[in-house]
């Protein structure tokens, strides 16, 4: 078998790269989409907030239900069908002149990507050893996500400027259908071949999903921290092209400025992952990944220049993403029962990213309408994410012990499997 780092980790990384480009196409093309679909002008702030966040509404619902309802299905099958569905929805957006169709397709995008997301934790848990998981999560989930954001605005903005928003949607949906779906069919392996897979229960013995299986009440503190990080991430990411333009960056500079926070995240990810795996201080590192960025975001009103504001946002997002994001999944995977990995990932990402992101998208949009500044919303996000850091520190004081046992995990592995 090919190295699992390339066949599993590499394929999923490329897939998530494309998935995040699909998510951000609307943020890039929003001014023209608003004009062509009739919600520019006075309707822009509220309608644009709906257009940007309806993806996250579907994403929230599907993460929770998708993680639970797909437990008996092989994750390979689930990710292939999910990718095909949302790629088709992305292509349809390029054809439409209807706001309702746009909203419907973005909702479908959220549903399909919400079902897809928990499967990545199932792959990471089944194919990589516990002492490899921060690195594995960084590859499977992190690098695809943040490389897409680091270069995505610089890729999508020139395409949008040269060919318009419709071609941009056609192109991104087409890449998923003719590129990623065949890649997954060829390279991903069924869970039954994985060296660290949980012993599959029969249909009659699939355990109930309980709070105990999720790690008990401390799981709620993890969830709270993830809600606040979801608000920080999506509140900034959905609006950053317009936010950097509002402080003086236009044209190519706007694309570069929009990408800088995520480029910083990519550059910092590998050293932070190594520190986490070597020290095992994942909870502390993840908590600082919320506390420090929160303080930096609250300093935005103190500085006047657009460059200074961009620097604060860049350092805050880069440090948060490299310190919190890879570690939280390793923490989750080491404190809950193996059969609850998919559902738990769906619950925490659905409520945290989907729910928190939806609230943040509207929060920034509404505060922009009332104050004329995107920065006012960013400051509020900073205050909220500090609360998330405090919750994670509290979790570190009372977190449950590792629940995985030799009886629950098959550790049979061959040289070919380990790569």
Q: How is this fold's topology laid out?
A:
Blueprint: H1 4-37, H2 44-69, H3 75-95, H4 99-127, H5 133-163, H6 165-187, H7 218-237, H8 240-246, H9 251-279, H10 282-298, H11 306-323, H12 325-333, H13 341-371, H14 375-398, H15 415-418
Helix pairs in contact: 1-2, 1-4, 1-5, 1-6, 2-4, 2-13, 3-4, 3-6, 4-5, 4-13, 5-6, 5-9, 5-12, 7-13, 7-14, 8-9, 9-11, 10-11, 10-12, 10-14, 13-14
Q: What's the level 1 CATH class?
A: Mainly Alpha
Within CATH, the superfamily carries the name MFS general substrate transporter like domains
Whole-number tally of structural domains: 1
Mean pLDDT, to the nearest integer, reads 85
**Proportion of helical residues:** over 70%
The biggest beta sheet reads: none
- Percentage of β-strand residues: under 5%
Runs with pLDDT <50, length 5+? Answer: 401-419
Q: Gyration radius, to the nearest Å?
A: 20 Å
Ends apart, CA distance between termini: 8 Å
What is the overall number of helices?
Answer: 15
Q: Spell the H/E element sequence.
A: HHHHHHHHHHHHHHH
Shape descriptor reads globular
Q: Could you say which structural class the secondary elements and strand pairing correspond to?
A: mainly alpha
CATH architecture: Up-down Bundle
Number of strand elements? 0
CATH overall fold name: Growth Hormone, Chain: A
């Amino acid at each position: 078998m090919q190295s699992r780092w390339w066949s599993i980790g590499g394929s999923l990384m490329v897939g998530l790269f494309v998935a995040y480009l699909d998510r951000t196409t609307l943020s890039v093309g929003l001014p023209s989409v608003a004009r062509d679909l009739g919600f520019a002008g006075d309707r822009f702030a509220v309608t644009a907030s709906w257009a940007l966040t309806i993806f996250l509404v579907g994403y929230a619902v599907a993460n929770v239900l998708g993680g639970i309802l797909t437990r008996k299905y092989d994750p390979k099958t689930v990710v292939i069908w999910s990718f095909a569905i949302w790629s088709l929805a992305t292509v349809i957006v390029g054809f439409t002149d209807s706001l309702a169709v746009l909203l419907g397709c973005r909702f479908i995008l959220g549903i399909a990507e919400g079902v897809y997301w928990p499967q990545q934790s199932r792959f990471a848990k089944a194919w990589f050893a516990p002492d490899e998981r921060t690195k594995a999560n960084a590859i499977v989930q992190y690098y695809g996500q943040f490389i897409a954001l680091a270069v995505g605005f610089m890729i999508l903005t020139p395409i949008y400027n040269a060919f318009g928003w419709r071609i941009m949607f056609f192109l991104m949906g087409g890449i998923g259908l003719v590129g990623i779906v065949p890649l997954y069919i060829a390279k991903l392996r069924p869970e039954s071949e994985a060296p660290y897979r949980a012993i599959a229960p029969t249909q009659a013995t699939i355990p109930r999903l309980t709070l105990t299986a999720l790690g008990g009440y401390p799981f709620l503190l993890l969830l709270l921290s993830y809600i606040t990080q979801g608000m920080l991430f999506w509140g900034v990411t959905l609006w950053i092209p317009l936010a950097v333009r509002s402080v003086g960056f236009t044209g190519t500079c706007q694309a570069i400025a929009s990408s800088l926070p995520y480029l910083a995240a990519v550059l910092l990810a590998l050293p932070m992952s190594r520190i986490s795996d070597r020290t095992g201080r994942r909870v502390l590192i993840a908590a600082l990944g919320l506390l420090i960025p929160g303080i930096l975001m609250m300093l935005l009103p103190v500085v006047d220049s657009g460059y200074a504001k961009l620097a604060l946002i860049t350092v805050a997002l880069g440090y948060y993403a490299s310190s919190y994001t890879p570690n939280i999944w390793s923490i989750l995977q080491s404190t809950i029962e193996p059969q609850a990995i998919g559902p738990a990932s769906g619950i925490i990402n659905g409520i945290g990213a989907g729910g928190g992101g939806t609230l943040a998208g509207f929060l920034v949009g509404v505060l922009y309408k009332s104050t004329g500044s995107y920065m006012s919303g960013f400051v509020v996000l900073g205050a909220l994410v500090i609360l998330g850091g405090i919750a994670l520190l509290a979790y570190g004081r009372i977190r449950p012990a590792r629940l995985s046992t030799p009886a629950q995990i098959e550790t049979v592995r061959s040289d070919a499997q380990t790569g």
